[in-house]
Amino acid sequence: MRKNIKVLLSTLGLDVHSRGVFTVAKYLRDSGMEVIYIGNSMPDEIIRAAIQEDADIIGVSSLGGAHLTLGGDLINQFKKEGIKDEKVFVIGGAIPDDDVGELKELGFDEIFTSGATKEEIVSTITNIFERKLV
Amino acid sequence: MNKATTKEIINKKTEKNSINPLFSKEALNAIRKQFNNWKSSSVREYDRDNWTVTPQTTLGSEIPRKMIYSPLDISELDYTSDLGNSGQAPFTRGIHPNMYRGKKFTIRQINGFGGPEDTNERLKFMIKNGATGLSVIFDIPTVQMYDSDDPISKGQVGTSGVAIDSSSDMDILFRDIPLEDITISIVTHYPSNTAILFPMFLVAAERRGIPWDKLGGSVQNDITLEEVVRSGSEYIPPRDCFRIQCDNVEFIRKNVPNWNFITLNGYNLRDFGTSSITEMAVAISNGIQTIETLLARGYEADWIAKRLAFFWSISNDFFDEVARIRAARRLWYKIMKYKFNAKDSRSMWMRCHVQTSGLTLTRQEPLNNIVRAALQALSATFSGAQSLHVDSYDEAYAVPTEESALLSLRTQQIIQSETAVTEVVDPLGGSYYIEALTNDIEKRILDEVSEIEKLGGYVKAIESGWIHRKVANYFHSEQAKMGKGDIKIVGYNCYKSSYKTPPIDVFKYPKGAEERQKKKLAKLKDSRNSRKVEDALKSLEEACRSSTNIIPYSVECARAGCTEGEIFKVFKKAYGLWKPPVFF
């Protein structure tokens, strides 16, 4: 039987915006995933929570411009822990097109920019989960 | 004991107002007869059956609209008591007799990125190109009250705003800016960071030899931003936050008399997720509780209210936006006059800054945003706002480039200089539709204000999580409507095109702000008198724990060279932390 997908969501760093992450949290929960929102967190706090909760998907929200600096830091810390390949990493927010490629190179599985729909978000995360972790 | 609500007070005190309706009974009878005949004979059945529609627009009021409005919809309208001329009570038509003929709305675009050196350059660029006011926004660590060298600020210094750590950064930020001649909106969203950053600004002015009473501008200082809209790591409790808000009001009113000590902010709450009605009800409820608190501290309503300002969002439902601002002006007048017994007309003015709605901007076909913002700016002009910020088309990607910031400025200049719309005051006043909508909106705002009062006032509505739940319910349901296409967004959920728009230039943050800020902080900490710093922080903590106004102590901290992070630590120690509710 397919395991229930467990998602850990957080607002990256000190970012002040939360409408987007709350919206995504509801989309994912309504589609049957288990969602934990840990609020504003730095990469080391996210990794601790991810291990503790044994989350499959790590989703972070960034609208304030720190997606590359803190996003890169987040992926590197998971690599250091040796558990980068055990998780799916997604990031969403106000992200310029040029940075989308860079975030993929850093190791994010998917980047959602403003306007991403419920269907896109749910199906993309489900597909990556099945491809990568099942 | 049951306290009368603002609605009950207003209704009671206005019931005996003499009524001189614009339309006589005879005229109304004739109009009704003609209208009914026309409706049954000339209007097709489909339109009769769908006589009212409820517009589905981003952040709209969802007030049902008829197909056409007539005198029958404003049959009791009394020109002298419901409208008055511009500059006359109840100020529905505007706060000044000549409105934009006397002074055009202030072109006030927000600026802020990188270090104070970078933003100082952008401010001078905006002045050079005709900005008539300035507005400065802070970077995320500064808004959240952490220093640039705090590990939690890593990678975020200078993003979405300018980094400020101490009063020395304020010196740099405003270098060569004529502080006596131009008004500055210092967008300190929260009461807590207003209590830290505004004193740093005052100390910078002091060092330049500028007396505080020569300074003009505004701070935001709004509990809604700190405790409801914000996403943050550490929150002080709402009650303490509100007390700091009132301390800021009291201190600034006394010591910086031409400064707007609060900008009751509906904008960010609405863009976070509330209807156009709730936006106003919340800001007005906060205003009411603030004035009540200052009255309890022994001040007069007229003295307090002269420098109170509002900040509204302007979204897509064009006529709704115009009517809303007119309704808020009339309602605020009634509140000040009938609830607070104000005498001076200036203290009954609902003065406002408005900004076009960021939530309406799309990433798809970004140039469409120029059109959206221009239409919103036009409705803001029709509404009689005092100052305006037009969002830039690239904001779904990043903060504006110099080019897009200039375009926002030009949008306002085109409205002011090329269209003649500023020549006539309240151009939509007297429209059957606008007046009916204004009446309806005023009632709805007052109903929601009463609802909050019955919960025990605005601070209680925050503490209980009532407002957080209301916002979450609203934006989840609105998001669903956008997803389904009930709310139409061109190029996103309707008229989608396979045409691939060419990429736009997107702002890139200047490099090096974080390192520069860290170096300056290290230098500051080496050069300042650490004994003075400790004493100032200790006195501030004692003030926080007592009932005395804390701002003079925060000014001393700024003078001693304390950093923002050091002062925020004092607040956290004195007040403790609060966990706001999360709903999804």
Concise overview:
The complex is a heterodimer of chains A (134) and B (584). Chain A is α/β, with parallel strands linked by helices and 134 residues long.
Structural notes for this entry:
The complex is a heterodimer of chains A (134) and B (584). Chain A has a single domain (6-133), classed as Rossmann fold. By secondary structure, chain A is an alpha/beta fold. The mean pLDDT of chain A is 94. In chain A, helix 1 links the parallel strand 1 (6-12) and strand 2 (34-41). Chain A has 5 helices and 5 strands. With 584 residues, chain B is α/β, with parallel strands linked by helices. Chain B folds into 2 domains: 106-230 and 515-584, TIM Barrel; 266-496, Methylmalonyl-CoA mutase (TIM Barrel). Chain B is built from 23 helices and 10 strands. Chain B has helices at 6-14, 25-41, 45-49, 79-83, 116-128, 140-143, 167-173, 191-207, 223-229, 238-255, 267-273, 276-296, 301-305, 318-339, 368-383, 402-418, 432-454, 458-463, 466-484, 513-527, 530-545, 551-560, 564-575; strands at residues 106-107, 110-111, 134-137, 184-187, 217-219, 259-260, 262-265, 308-314, 351-356, 387-389. In chain B, the strands form 2 sheets. Chain B has a 5-stranded parallel beta sheet with strand order 1-10-9-8-7. A 5-stranded parallel beta sheet of chain B has the order 2-3-4-5-6, covered by helices on one side. In chain B, helix 14 links the parallel strand 8 and strand 9 (351-356). In chain B, helix 12 packs parallel to helix 14 (318-339). The longest helix of chain B is centred in the last third of the chain and has 23 residues, at 432-454. Chain B is globular and about 85 Å long. The mean pLDDT of chain B is 95. At the A-B interface, helix 1, strand 2 and helix 3 of A face helix 6 and helix 19 of B.
